[in-house]
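Quick one before lunch.
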Amino acid sequence: MKLGEFELTKPVFMAPMAGITDKAFREIIRLVGGKYTFTEMISDKALIYNNSKTIKMLDLSGEDRPRIVQLFGSEPEVMAEAARIAVTYGADVIDINMGCPTPKIVKNKEGAALLKNIPLAVEIAAKVVKAVDVPVTAKLRLGWDSDSIVAPDLAARLEAVGISMLTLHARTREQYYSGQADWSWIRRIKEQIKIPVIGNGDIQTPFDALKMLQETGCDGVMIARGALGNPWLIGKTQHFLETGEIWPEPDAIEKLAIVLKHLEKVITYKGEKIGINEMRKHAAWYLKGTRNAAQFRQQLMVTSDAAQMKELLQKAFLQEN
Ligand SMILES: Cc1cc2nc3c(=O)[nH]c(=O)nc-3n(C[C@H](O)[C@H](O)[C@H](O)COP(=O)(O)O)c2cc1C
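Model of the flavin mononucleotide complex:
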């Protein structure tokens, strides 16, 4: 499939995840074989007000292309301006969030609230497409709830105003992250529009990804929760879809090397205090499946500096050796 100037073969995208897919995490995904990532969702308003924390989220320097920046907002002009700003920071693609279910976001008419206001969703898309020369994509859910499935109608209208690729998280807003994603909607939308469709929801293994491609005919897949503490899943799935081969699971030594690299990167980009804080959740996820994980997780919560956290991780991952 094509996304602007980029040719992508059965792409496996690391999903945009607020609080997770920062620069450090994106670099880790690439380091272990993944090819495609999104930024976290970035507020259009915070960008145009030049909020320093938000501007840092646009640090794409040195990252592989295409660099995909996700924006959220509810005002077409503000979204258009934010998209222009993101492009000046090196965005190759602008993605519009039409699926975030969080009350704080939807109460501002942003994220999944756009599923209840199709004319506004379409106007935002049209304005952003006009504002920038790079491809503009959108990520949506099925609808607000099961009685108001709007994705087929919205998909057609987004295609008509120039959206270049659609990602469908096959759940409603009401479902949040529970229940099962209904992949049959991905197939329906793929059959209905010409632009590439990326399927998302409940992929935990490379085999799930293949099943989604086969069942829905989608052009690529996106994985979110399955990659928490398991960044290897993205590259592994990409390699499997391209070649049919399964890479072996990383052993404890490799896991330790990557979690330490991740820690080092977070501290480089955010400083030790914030870095340690943010790394606690990642480290807890990386520990999944490790002996005595619960005990190490508890200790992680009280580590106060990088050296302590490093020592603890070494103990946890090397205990078998
Ligand atoms: C903690 C968390 C943060 C998320 N942040 C975003 C976000 O910033 N933008 C977005 O479009 N989706 C976000 N999502 C949704 C995911 O990208 C994805 O659509 C959803 O988790 C379904 O995929 P999965 O079943 O592979 O987890 C988030 C999900 C979680 C669990």
